[in-house]
Design goal:
Blueprint: E1 22-26, E2 31-35, E3 44-46, H1 48-57
Antiparallel strand pairs: 1-2, 2-3
């Protein structure tokens, strides 16, 4: 198990005002998603295929 913190990022469309945003970290096994306002509450991990399908529907 890796102890390295993932490289989290927000969409370039996110404003700097701290609104309703999510952060995403991508690794070879999964895409990790978390609430940008409370980064300590945990993450959701989905497959790359699920993330691609989600983005296609936006």
């Amino acid at each position: 198990m890796s102890t390295t913190e993932p490289d989290w990022f927000k969409s370039s469309y996110s404003g700097g005002g701290g609104g309703d945003c999510v952060e995403v970290a991508i690794d070879p096994a999964a895409v990790h998603i978390r609430d940008s306002k409370d980064t300590t509450t945990g993450t959701l991990a989905v497959t790359h295929d699920a993330w691609t399908a989600f983005l296609a529907r936006l």
